[in-house]
Design goal:
heterodimer, A: alpha+beta, 2 domains, 6 helices, 4 strands, B: mainly alpha, 17 helices
């Protein structure tokens, strides 16, 4: 009986891991190759049953079975750079910088968080755009809170566009494409 | 009819043999527990100075914004803080510090193996609470650590090289089923990863490696002069696909296991240094050591009875 229970648990756990990865990979392929943001077949099949979907989701989140294994596949995403220019009350520039952290690990996490702004390129709906703008505003507010002389923050959201190695060899240049420009003031 | 019955009986027997034949001792469980504990503790200490920025009430991304995608069944910090404030009048920041202290203590206790299951459970729930409170700032390592902590909860990791083992008398146990599940898990990790890379073109033409080493978050210098070595990026990309995609074939064969384990660990060490993802590399190397670095008992004892049956090659 114990053996049967273990085999049942192992089979369910493995199925969960595989199914989550089928969902994740299908979504990322649809997005990368066809620029589609709609749910794929695997996602639609399970989300049609809300109770089953919730149980599956909860189990996956608690056990780590939701982890996607396609590290940097099918493509290494371009870095998003959030450049903040801060101004004092006279309108002089205090600094032009990206947010600072004490530890390298926090910086890695910040870079990962910036990936969310890739959604600014694709059409994810007005609500999602509002959510992304709220995040940008929150980062701006954090800069105000950490710099008492700051009266204005200008945020530029840039995406790093790197040509292939052979193009660089033929004198092509990397560039920063602007995704957005936002200004926040304290009156 | 007889042949079909025989075949299904053989298959059932092979599955049972694979999972339940007692061939591994419990050292891998101790490595899993101690390794997970050390990585969590090191990561916790490194992140301490930035806790406020990542998950504080006045952090970079406000807690209510980070909680948008977090389902109700996850007890994230904003939810815990709401209860703590309502019933005990404890502030948000104090909840973070209080839970941080408890987290550090339970990780240490888990590492030493004292009241292991209770502490593994607490560490697992607190880890989930923390990562979903700084949801936007998470990456692959957090989810792998969740999986490893989950295994620490469900597997008897406190029975080997632990304080619990000194305090309680445990009966001898068969640990093989646990390592089998971990082995299948890690094979899936690399097979899916390799397959996902192989389907696109960027890992075949070197573009992915070129992009990875040139990310502004990785290097602050202009290294475009390295564009002349494009063949190296093609080879590195294809080698990554081969190592990952064929991991689940070569790791099971005792003749190629050491080679594949070395290649995989080298790949992760390269990721640690080139892409500056040391914790991710540490977790993956730990996962590899736990699952495939320990020899089955028969191989250790040079007992050939299974070799004679031709079974050992498949272990």
């Amino acid at each position: 009986m114990k053996k049967l229970l273990f085999l049942g648990f192992a089979a369910m756990h493995i199925v969960c891991i595989v199914y989550n990865n089928v969902i994740i990979e299908e979504q990322s392929f649809l997005r990368f190759f066809y620029s589609k943001n709609e749910p794929g077949i695997a996602m639609s099949a399970i989300s049609g049953n809300p109770l089953g979907y919730n149980i599956f989701n909860a189990y996956s989140k608690y056990t780590g079975a939701e982890t996607g294994f396609g590290f940097y596949a099918p493509n290494v995403a371009s870095d998003i750079i959030l450049l903040q220019t801060t101004y004092d009350k006279t309108g002089s520039v205090i600094s032009i910088a990206t947010p600072k952290f004490h530890s390298k690990e926090a910086k890695i996490r910040y870079v990962s968080a910036m990936g969310v702004f890739m959604d600014k390129i694709d059409n994810h709906g007005a609500m999602h755009q509002k959510y992304l703008n709220a995040i940008l505003k929150s980062i701006g507010l954090y800069t105000f809170n950490n710099n008492s002389t700051c009266r204005k923050v200008v945020t530029d959201l840039l995406v790093y566009d790197l040509p292939p190695a052979n193009s660089i060899k033929n004198h092509a240049h990397a560039s920063y494409l602007k995704l957005g420009h936002y200004e926040y003031n304290i009156k | 009819m007889n042949i079909t019955l025989n075949n299904s009986y053989n298959k059932k027997n092979r599955v049972l043999n694979f999972f339940f034949r007692d061939v591994y001792d419990g050292r891998f469980l101790a490595t899993l527990r101690i390794g997970t504990g050390l990585i969590l503790l090191s990561q916790f200490i490194q992140l301490l100075p930035d806790v406020q920025a990542l998950m504080g009430e006045n952090g970079m991304v406000r807690p209510d914004l980070q909680a948008v995608d977090v389902p109700a069944y996850i007890l994230s910090l904003p939810r815990l803080a709401t209860y703590a404030n309502a019933y005990m009048h404890i502030r948000y920041e104090s909840v973070i510090y209080l839970l941080g202290i408890v987290y550090a203590i339970v990780i240490v206790l888990l590492t030493f193996g004292l009241l292991t299951r209770i502490n593994a459970c607490l560490a697992w729930l607190l880890h989930l609470s923390f990562i979903y409170s700084a949801h936007l700032f998470t990456y692959g390592v957090d989810y792998f650590l969740t999986a490893l902590l989950f295994y620490n909860v469900v597997f008897p990791v406190g029975r080997v090289y632990s304080i619990d083992k000194l305090l309680f008398k445990y009966k001898a146990s068969n640990y093989t089923p646990y390592i089998r599940l971990l082995q299948i898990h890690i094979c899936l990790v690399y097979f899916i990863s390799g397959l996902a890379k192989a389907v696109g073109t960027n890992w075949w033409n070197g573009m992915s490696i070129w992009k990875a080493i040139n990310r502004p978050s990785v290097t602050s210098y202009n290294i475009h002069f390295l564009s002349s070595f494009e063949d190296i990026y093609v080879v590195a990309g294809i080698a990554t696909i081969i190592v990952e995609l064929f991991y689940c074939f070569f790791i099971w064969n005792k003749h190629t296991r050491i080679l594949w384990l070395t290649l995989t660990c080298l790949m992760h060490l390269t990721i640690a240094f080139v892409l500056q993802l040391p914790y991710f590399a540490a977790v993956m190397i730990l996962f590899n050591i736990v699952t495939f670095s320990y020899k089955p008992k028969e191989q250790n004892n040079k007992n050939t009875s299974y070799e004679e049956q031709g079974l050992l090659n498949n272990i």
